[in-house]
């Protein structure tokens, strides 16, 4: 028999209470956790603490129905019961007048009772992964609601006055409609909005009214155009447009002065607007998997840029101005048609990772010798070493010094079914992992592997790494 375990700090927390081994009515029980107990109904033991119970966790059980006595626990501030078999929420929920957080995700609930409006203190509602088709009008009276999560639901529309609420986070990724509900556009205080993985075909210009919006995720939709009124989202810091059907970006995107992350990968872009150079705070730009033939010279104004990815495009050259992006640490240009790189790339002295695999390069500019922090240089799809030796040679035509190795000249790949070893290269993830590592191991051709007594390869600090010419 499992007994109630007690931990005494500011309040006593009960864990696993399926028996009556402890009755401590003289103690104050404020938190009970019955998660993962294979329960088919709410334990009756909790009703002994209905006056003091503030938090109740019933996560991951097989509970199908909530008893009326549960709603006598009017001191409840947090009720968590995700991953159960609930099919409805009883109207008695309105009795929990002190409830602040409600988690009913991963159930079979189809609707909220309209009298949920009586739970005036509700600030967080997690209702993802439920077949909810609509929200009751009573939701508009939850004036303290700041976070609402409705991922994987079946919402068709929102209440008319929904926009009067103050939201910090609003997550919906399962609209049946192909248009953004008008009520959503009226939530002027909205800070974060997830609309990824829907069937949205357009984003109305009225979204520009969300002037306090900081995070907007529109990835994995069917959006063909982005309205120029997006510039109204003047506080926007993260804009995710990956995996849509965009053919161009509006010039007004340059007015999003606070933007730090812009992801437009996996679209149908043939160019980037010159105004992109106005995004002076931009730190991450991903325009991979598009149809870009060139990059605008104004990219050189992105002085805050740290991660840049333009894989799988049709780039034949890079603008000389890219050398002004001196804070870039990770740059990936895999699977393009680059035949040469500008000398100015040697000005990007903070580069640590550079992926040039699957291009048409014959050599590298001699200015690469200035890239002292370079830790990984990818030149081939089947390259096994992070950094390989480079040799100095004279260009046969210009007689200028260039850098080359056995991988040059690169030849365009004809086998379209061939899977590159670097196809899964994620520059952002690589950089994050690098920052977490203090040392890396490199296998040099001109040196035998040094092994210690245990037979392990000797590890060289990145700080000790120098580009060998």
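Sequence proposed for the structure above (469 residues):
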């Amino acid at each position: 028999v499992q007994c109630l375990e007690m931990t005494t700090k500011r309040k006593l927390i009960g864990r696993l209470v399926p028996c009556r081994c402890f009755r401590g009515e003289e103690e104050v029980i404020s938190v009970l956790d019955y998660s993962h107990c294979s329960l088919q109904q709410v334990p009756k033991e909790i009703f002994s603490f209905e006056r003091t119970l503030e938090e109740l966790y019933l996560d991951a059980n097989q509970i199908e129905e909530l008893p009326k006595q549960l709603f006598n626990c009017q001191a409840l501030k947090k009720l968590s019961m995700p991953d159960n078999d609930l099919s409805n929420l009883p109207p008695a929920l309105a009795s929990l007048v002190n409830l602040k957080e409600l988690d009913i995700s991963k159930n079979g609930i189809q609707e909220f009772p309209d009298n949920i409006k009586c739970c005036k203190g509700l600030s967080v509602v997690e209702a993802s992964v439920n077949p909810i088709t609509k929200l009751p009008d009573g939701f508009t009276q939850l004036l303290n609601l700041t976070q609402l999560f409705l991922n994987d639901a079946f919402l068709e529309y929102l209440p008319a006055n929904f926009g009067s609420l103050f939201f910090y986070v609003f997550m919906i990724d399962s609209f049946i409609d192909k248009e953004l509900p008008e009520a959503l556009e009226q939530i002027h205080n909205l800070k974060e909005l997830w609309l990824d993985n829907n069937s949205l075909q357009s984003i109305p210009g009225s979204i520009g009214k969300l002037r306090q919006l900081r995070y907007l995720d529109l990835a994995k939709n069917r959006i063909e155009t982005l309205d120029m009124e997006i510039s109204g989202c003047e506080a926007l810091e993260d804009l995710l447009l990956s995996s849509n059907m965009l053919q161009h970006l509006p010039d007004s995107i340059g007015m999003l002065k606070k933007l730090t992350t812009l992801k437009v990968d996996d679209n149908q872009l043939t160019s980037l607007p010159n105004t992109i150079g106005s995004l002076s705070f931009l730190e991450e730009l991903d325009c991979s998997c598009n149809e870009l033939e060139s990059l605008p010279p104004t990219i050189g104004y992105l002085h805050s840029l740290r991660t840049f990815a333009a894989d799988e495009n049709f780039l034949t050259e890079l603008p000389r101005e890219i050398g002004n992006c001196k804070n870039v640490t990770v740059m990936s240009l895999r699977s393009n048609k680059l035949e040469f790189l500008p000398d100015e790339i040697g000005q990007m002295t903070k580069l640590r990772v550079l992926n040039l695999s699957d291009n048409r390069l014959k050599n590298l500019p001699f200015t690469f010798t200035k890239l002292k922090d370079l830790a990984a240089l990818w030149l081939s799809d089947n390259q096994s070493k992070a950094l390989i030796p480079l040799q100095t040679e004279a260009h046969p035509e210009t007689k200028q010094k260039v850098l080359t190795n056995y991988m040059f000249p690169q030849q365009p790949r004809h086998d379209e079914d061939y899977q590159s070893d670097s196809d899964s290269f994620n520059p952002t993830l690589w950089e994050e992992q690098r920052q977490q590592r203090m040392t890396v191991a490199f296998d040099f051709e001109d040196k035998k592997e040094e092994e210690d007594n245990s037979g392990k390869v000797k590890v060289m600090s990145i700080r000790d790494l120098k580009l060998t010419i």
